[in-house]
From TrEMBL:
<keyword id="KW-0813">Transport</keyword>
<protein>
    <recommendedName>
        <fullName>Choline/carnitine acyltransferase domain-containing protein</fullName>
    </recommendedName>
</protein>
<dbReference type="InterPro" id="IPR000542">
    <property type="entry name" value="Carn_acyl_trans"/>
</dbReference>
<keyword id="KW-0443">Lipid metabolism</keyword>
<dbReference type="GO" id="GO:0006635">
    <property type="term" value="P:fatty acid beta-oxidation"/>
</dbReference>
<dbReference type="InterPro" id="IPR042231">
    <property type="entry name" value="Cho/carn_acyl_trans_2"/>
</dbReference>
<keyword id="KW-0808">Transferase</keyword>
<dbReference type="InterPro" id="IPR023213">
    <property type="entry name" value="CAT-like_dom_sf"/>
</dbReference>
<dbReference type="Pfam" id="PF00755">
    <property type="entry name" value="Carn_acyltransf"/>
</dbReference>
<comment type="similarity">
    <text>Belongs to the carnitine/choline acetyltransferase family.</text>
</comment>
<dbReference type="GO" id="GO:0004095">
    <property type="term" value="F:carnitine O-palmitoyltransferase activity"/>
</dbReference>
<dbReference type="InterPro" id="IPR039551">
    <property type="entry name" value="Cho/carn_acyl_trans"/>
</dbReference>
<feature type="domain" description="Choline/carnitine acyltransferase">
    <location>
        <begin position="46"/>
        <end position="627"/>
    </location>
</feature>
<keyword id="KW-0276">Fatty acid metabolism</keyword>
<dbReference type="InterPro" id="IPR042572">
    <property type="entry name" value="Carn_acyl_trans_N"/>
</dbReference>
<dbReference type="GO" id="GO:0005739">
    <property type="term" value="C:mitochondrion"/>
</dbReference>
<keyword id="KW-0012">Acyltransferase</keyword>
Amino acid sequence: MNRTFLFANIPSTLFHRRLSSISKDYQFIQKSRLPSLHFQPSLPRLPIPALEKTCERFLRAQKPLLTEEEYGVVEKNVKSFCSQDGQSLQKQLIDNDRNNRQTSYISKPWFDMYLNDRRPLPINYNPFLVFISDPKKEYNSQLIRSTNLVVSSLRFLKSLNANLIEPEVYHLDPKKSDTKFFRTVTGALPSSISWYGAYLFKAFPLDMSQYRHLFNTSRIPKKDSDELFHVDQTNYITVMQRGKFYKVRVLDDNGNIIDSPTIFSCLKFIIDKPSTEEKHPVGILTTENRNVWADARSHLESIGNSDVLRTIDGAIFNLVLDENELAEDEFTSLIRQYLHADGKNRWFDKSFSLIINKRGVAGVNFEHSWGDGIAVLRYFQDIYKDSTEYPQVNPESKPNNCRVEDYVTDLDFKLDDKSKVSIENAIQKFDSTTSSLGIEVHEFKEFGRNLCKAHKISPDFLMQLSFQMAHHKLNNYFVSTYESCSTSAFKHGRTETMRPLTVEAKELCLDFSERSRHSKEELISKMKKASDVHGNLIKEAAMGQGFDRHLFALRLLSEKAGKVPAIFTHPSYKKLNHYILSTSTLSSDVVHLGAFGPVVPDGFGIGYSIWNDRLGAIVSNYKGNTDGSGLLSCWQASLNELYELLKL
């Protein structure tokens, strides 16, 4: 099963966009000169690649994974597909796309891929991000930080709903295009042609259709295929503490944000409320297999819990108040807490949960079917900036004299013996799963982006090469590797797979395993060529010219017709899509940690970061199946080899 990761490989400058229209108006985080969706109607459509090109790219990706004999069989199947069955499937795909011009050819199939998967959401799908601390240490208490982040979140919501959030635009040269003049010119153009105006500035507006599901959204478990539930507007958030749920009204009857002292008072009331941990926490059921959870939820509804469940589903978002006092330098424990925890104080079905512990360490865990992370990261960065630069409460803040009971409502579940047994079973299963998960963290401080650029080598290529070298050192063979690339430059674009294991990267790994036989000059020359290949693959993927999503769509059509070509039934296709190394990166100054789980039982999840002078990685794996600490040790050794080669 394919999986999209937290952050696609897109230019890091996107995540350093300045908030040119930050607003001091309490109701709005921004008041953009350009409407949020100004460019949406004129975004280009995601192209369907030429069948011949897709077949060429597929073979190129298969070559480093197969023996000559295996490759010969695959090549024969591909040639047959390209000249026969593929032609009719391609025509059908193009016809379908032509009749659905309001979206992309991959949007619905990709939604369905997520919603059909029966695996539990935590670890398998839901990723997380942790904020860096508020620079003002005294603002990092649970109550103060929760209040400020909640208010900033509501300000973001209000601006989004009012079309006042700054449009997401990738600027090739921000100094020339991220300007008032750019906004004036493109703002004067009708939405139907505004994208073309931005293009003249070498600025590329990105799809913002996923933002609709950021708030007031939940994934509902159903037998065989889940549903995405969304309401346009509600006036409350849910708050979880010790496994208990509370409904907190945060908008007034006119849809305006309630004053911050009242929100502060409500959260203080919940935090200070004397209570024990919920004996039968219903949230643990969201860690279950989706069919199991669908049955359990249906039973909960049948015994009188429909209103409580629908209240949770429709909440603006879910605020989680954790009891732990983990500090931000307790990396492994923090990763576990925000990736999965014990599941008792979580509701993994919500579009996102804002999680804050007793020390004020804050983060987000989000459900993945509705979006690919760009909307979450935008929200994440904007509320960090707003909550730290324009905090609404401070260490001297006191509760006001509001009647808290008018704003806070306990949400209590009615449970029978059957539900309690389901909860107890889920606790045991999730504890077993999380106990089997390994987490390894390392920061390599010898070099980073700057040294790579001095050699005109892509830093991302170098990181991916180091992972290939590490796995080869550990196991002496090569495996299918996934790196996500955003196609958000297109209307309803999602992601495309970029495959870092190229013929050139494999050859380099083998050369490094026989280092004494190759000169420094030879290896650096090969690295530059392999880096160029890597960069071109990223460009192809970002421009909708990868092969994975195209073949995915063609395969679905063939399955629907009941005639699946040999290209899809040969074991090599399954092997190519069995991602032993699942990798993702992000660049943001406000992210302290971010990671995800492995996507196959015998694989590794690798979240990595590249800074100017250092490199970092978080590796997850299932301890009984793979060696996470061994991979990390081999990764460090590989980076040392690369540093010895490249150091000036």
